[in-house]
Amino acid sequence: MLRKFIPMIVFALLFTTVIQTHTAEASTRDNVVSYAKEQLGVPYRFGGTTPSGFDCSGFIRYVMNQVGVSMPRTASEQYNTGRAIAKSDLKKGDLVFFETYKPGPSHSGIYVGDGKFIHASSSNGITISSVNDPYYWGSRYLGAKRVIKDETVEVAVKKAEPARVLGEGEYRDVLPTHWAFNEIKVLSKGNMITGYGDGLFAPNDKVTRAQIAALITRATSLPTSDGTTGYSDVPANHWSASSIAAMERAGYFSYIEGGSFNMNQPVTREEIAVLFAKAFDLVNAETLSASSASTFTDVDQSNWAYEEIHALQASGIVQGFDDGTYRPSGHVTRAEFSKILHTTLHH
């Protein structure tokens, strides 16, 4: 009788082992993605290997270390580890490599599924991008490596720490150490600005003209009606049309020439100065007088937004960068907008 059940017992044990192996692999991959996403919003830092700042290979090394996978330091060294895999076979936790400014692997990230990877961008810090991005990453894709073994239950996985409990107005990708954490939290609690769902705020995303119209209209309680505008590219039923129309009627967009609004165009720092100066009536005798002492080295009186930029500086709303510049043609991120709006409302 016992002999009859031995094959069944052996099969059950083997089946259980297969399930445990698959579960361990899946758990490790999920943990890699979880640890990686905890660092969203951390700034880029050349040579950085800690949550105070990462470069691309330092980020990978840090995340993989959390699940007991040892990695070399540089992207080229990391490219020589693991097993090469096709793009079509990518799994969560696989490493993806790109050829950017020189031949060979010069940038890397961690695949998180759905055609996306998380990486340390020199312009946006830890962020998520598309592997097939037609504007940049797609054409620079070099290859992928698998460093998480498919068939092992011996990977040393650290116990995942409990996810941060988010308070009202808080987001997973805006850590309490973020330079705009308090401003984003206050504005979110007051419904002045909102996130993208799933606990994300995307602080490094650029603010578009459509978004700025809705945000300023909301912040100033500007009356809105229908979405009829004088712009040929703003449908009346677009979600931002009534806000664009309200700001157009108020004269806030008078600097836009031609019949197109370009809703998805990122807002520049000189635009933000003009819009805030108009919406909050910041250009006056006091600020014009004080602006004569302004010290932005890249903004002179020939700049079309000169008075507005220096009105914001004189009001203490903007201070510029450490090198004494304002960078008027630079784009405004959601974190920067939050900082400027909060300072304007509370200065």
UniProtKB/TrEMBL annotation:
Calcium as a keyword? no
Keyword terms: Hydrolase, Protease, Signal, Thiol protease
Which PANTHER family would you find in this protein's record?
MUREIN DD-ENDOPEPTIDASE MEPH-RELATED
Which GO molecular function, any one, fits this protein according to its record? cysteine-type peptidase activity
- Report which residue ranges the record marks as coiled coil: none
| Pfam entry (one) | NLPC_P60
Superkingdom of source:
Bacteria
Residues spanning the signal sequence: 1-23
Name by which UniProt lists this protein:
S-layer family protein
User: What range(s) does the NlpC/P60 domain occupy?
Assistant: 26-148
Boundaries of every SLH domain copy? 167-230, 231-290, 292-347
Q: Name the family the entry cites.
A: Belongs to the peptidase C40 family.
Q: Which GO terms are recorded in the biological process aspect for this UniProt protein?
A: proteolysis
Give the originating organism. Halalkalibacter nanhaiisediminis
